Amino acid sequence: MLVVETLTCVHCNNLYRKLGKSDPVGFCHMCFKPVCLHCGAIDRCEPFERKLEALEARSRLLRACG
After folding, report:
1. Is 61 a residue whose pLDDT tops 90?
2. DSSP code of residue 23
3. Strands 26-27 and 34-35, bridge-based pairing
4. pTM for the whole structure
């Protein structure tokens, strides 16, 4: 059985594995959370939960409009 430490990117919600302390990991300097290298290269903080809240709000608005 192989046990590998994983992290979840707070911006895209993808899992990635961290094999050792020297492995490159992105870091968001706005929300101070670990992110994947792809999201770490983007110069804006857009947490995944905020994206979900926006989708839910849009869905509620569309239902209210009919």
Report:
1. yes
2. S
3. antiparallel
4. 0.70
